[in-house]
Design a protein that fits this description.
mainly alpha; 0% strand; globular
Length: 682
């Protein structure tokens, strides 16, 4: 029996331990290997069985849809995408497709024009590797190898010089070497590379790697980067002109700089093959979010649960997982063919949303052979079930005349129905038709209204149109300030801002120095979250700052505190209340600002209290109670303590304690006059 076997093994182990003094390591390793083999022996057949069951369910679902006339017969349904004469439809203004990763991404010749110079092909291969697998250490090493080989073939390949410099700066695929990185940036900048100028702008703005801390040179390099078309350089110059940082303050000039990267983002999202609207996760570092990645773990667990439910035949789960595979999110790579299979599985069970998603795949030729007639049939069937997504699809097909006769009135009718159900795409198209006077009389007020509805759901093209209308004063009074806010937000959503996600990944991996550099670089472009995060990392850098130092040499603790306050000021200027509080604390205690200045501290706390900060109100109450930087006034102190509860009811306990203390303070002031003692006191 197993019990006898275990007891025998235990006695044998004990005997070995008696003879040798300890159990051999080989026994433990052997047991671990055997355990893995047993687990895999049971898991592999189950996995293969589940895959077989899913494939069978998909084939059955596809046959069901073909019998209903919703899919083309035979192998035409899931044939590879071919964008021919019948594949002109694009049913989303923000794109609906994705680009599958190259199967042989390590091959430097994959998908490149053979006529390109070898160095350029190697550079493009490195870029593909980093784009497809940004978090893969193997891909980073391989990309660095390609970059070095490219520079051996062409030492003046300026983009490769910049890319290799960034690799050495971040230690991605190569050793960290700030001096070498700075030298590579300077070489690339001398050849006119705009990305290298953007890097040198950062270096001279912060003194990174021993570069001279010179704001004028920083502005010059960022200007060259912006003129060369680098979106980060354009954002940096737009931010400087918006706030007057080293440049004349000018909203109009800021709008011009921000419009360029915003326009690039629109070019990306309008391409149906480019994927969904790019998003950049902005994770704010606070003491409350410190010490874990529980949210991401829970998200992965939810995705796995939905995928399991979908494989077991749940239509709602299949639609949800299909959406994720279609865009490549939540830890799953983009896979349009798998998205098609999940959508087909759910559509065969009558799911209207899945039918509409299939319609968009066929209309755009994404993962399947483009077929406008099939798309129209799917849209019609789903629209009869009330699907807003399908109604929008029918509207677009009628507007463009794909698979049906062009009919602007019908298009507007379908768009309006979908918009009333909350479809952002439909709301945008209703606005566009009113703005251009297509199928309806031109009306900028209605256009602005519908663009605004879509913009509230994050629709990028609607946001861009709103900004342009506010700049031109169409449908409402002109407002440069509001337009710049919209354009700045769009620019920050671009893929060039992914360094913010990389910074958070480095911070989670406890690579604080690398995270700090990335946050500081993003802060130069005016991203408020990056500015506050850079300050947060600096505040916690006391243990390693003096040995590291941003200037490539030892730096004192005062330099660290001054830099933290600098980034807090930048973030506070963009409305960050927590940064305002930290600046007030700095003046109160004299950290990073020179000497203690309670008057300035009170002024900053007052500014934060006007933004409904409960902590600032509490601090003002304390300062009034004790006459610290403010006139001693117990009545005003009580008023501020009472205001705390209106701003944050959860602060009941500290406020009540403060009020009790204030009452005692008042009693002492009233009963203990100068020169008198309390009864019983010496």
């Amino acid at each position: 029996s197993s019990f006898i076997f275990r007891r025998g093994a235990t006695e044998m182990t004990r005997a070995v331990r008696v003879r040798l003094g300890r159990a051999p390591r080989g026994c433990a390793r052997l047991r671990a290997v055997l355990l893995v083999i047993v687990v895999l022996a049971g898991a592999v057949p189950r996995t293969l069985a589940m895959r077989g069951a899913f494939a069978s369910a998909f084939r059955s679902a596809e046959r069901t849809l073909q019998e209903k006339g919703l899919l083309p017969p035979g192998d035409d349904a899931s044939a590879p995408a071919s964008r021919g004469a019948d594949s002109d439809a694009s049913t989303t203004s923000e794109g609906g497709g994705v680009v599958e990763a190259d199967a042989d991404a390590d091959d430097p010749g994959t998908d490149d024009d053979p006529s390109l110079p070898p160095a350029e092909r190697l550079f493009r291969a490195a870029t593909r590797l980093l784009d497809d697998r940004p978090d893969s250490a193997r891909a980073q090493r391989r990309a660095a190898t390609f970059l070095r080989e490219a520079l051996e073939l062409d030492p003046n390949h300026r983009a490769a010089l910049t890319a290799l410099g960034r690799a050495h700066q971040a230690g991605e695929g190569v050793d960290v070497d700030d001096a070498l990185a700075l030298d590579l940036f300077r070489r690339a900048a001398s050849l006119g590379d705009p990305g290298a100028h953007e890097e040198l702008g950062f270096a001279h703005s912060t003194g990174w790697a021993g570069a001279a801390e010179d704001p004028a040179r920083a502005v010059l390099h960022q200007y060259f980067a912006a003129m060369g078309g680098d979106p980060r350089g354009q954002m940096a110059m737009g931010y400087r002109h918006l706030h007057g940082l080293g440049t004349p303050k000018s909203c109009a000039t800021a709008a011009l700089y921000y419009e360029a990267p915003a326009s690039k983002l629109i070019d990306v999202v309008r391409d149906p093959l480019a994927g969904p609207t790019p998003t950049v996760e902005k994770t704010r570092l606070t003491p409350d979010t410190e010490g874990g990645d529980g949210g991401a773990v829970r998200e992965r667990d939810v995705v796995q649960y939905y995928q399991y439910s979908a494989d077991m035949g749940n239509a709602d789960a299949a639609t949800a997982i299909g959406r994720i595979f279609a865009v490549g999110a939540k830890g799953l790579r983009r896979d349009r063919k798998r998205a098609y299979r999940y959508f087909a599985q759910a559509a065969a069970q009558g799911d209207a949303d899945a039918m509409s998603q299939l319609g968009h795949l066929f209309a755009n030729g994404l993962g399947v052979r483009a077929n406008n007639a099939t798309a129209v049939n799917l849209f019609k069937t789903a629209a009869e079930k009330g699907s807003a997504n399908a109604q929008f699809g029918l509207g677009y097909m009628h507007l463009a005349g794909y698979g049906v006769e062009r009919d602007e009135k019908k298009a507007l009718n379908y768009f309006t129905k979908a918009a009333e159900q909350g479809s952002a795409e439909a709301q945008f198209h209703v606005g566009a038709m009113h703005a251009k006077g297509v199928g309806v009389k031109r009306d900028y007020t209605k256009a602005f209204y519908n663009f605004n509805l879509a913009a509230h759901q994050g629709h990028a093209v609607a946001l861009y149109n709103l900004a342009m209308m506010q700049l031109a004063g169409l449908g409402l009074p002109a407002s440069c300030k509001n337009a710049v806010v919209l354009l700045k937000g769009l620019a920050e959503r671009g893929p060039w801002n992914r360094r913010l996600e990389a910074a958070h990944g480095a911070y989670r991996a406890r690579s604080y120095q690398r995270a700090l550099v990335k946050y500081m670089k993003a802060a130069e472009t005016g991203v408020e979250v990056a500015q506050s995060n850079a300050a947060y990392v600096l505040e916690g850098a006391k243990d390693w700052w003096e040995d590291w130092g941003i200037k490539g040499k030892d730096a004192d603790d005062g330099d660290r505190e001054r830099r933290a306050i600098h980034y807090h000021r930048l973030a506070a200027d963009q409305g960050n209340v927590r940064s305002l509080l930290r600046i007030g604390d700095a003046y109160y205690y004299g950290n990073g600002v020179g000497e203690v200045d309670r008057n300035k501290s009170a002024a900053v706390y007052l500014q934060a209290s006007q933004k409904r900060s409960a902590q600032a109100m509490f601090n003002l109450g304390t300062m009034h109670e004790h006459g610290l930087g403010l006139p001693k006034d117990l009545h005003l102190a009580k008023r501020y303590y009472d205001m705390v509860l209106s701003a944050d009811p959860k602060a009941w306990v500290p406020v009540k304690l403060a009020l009790w203390k204030l009452r005692a303070h008042r009693w002492i002031d009233e009963n203990w006059t100068e020169g008198a003692n309390l009864p019983g006191w010496a």
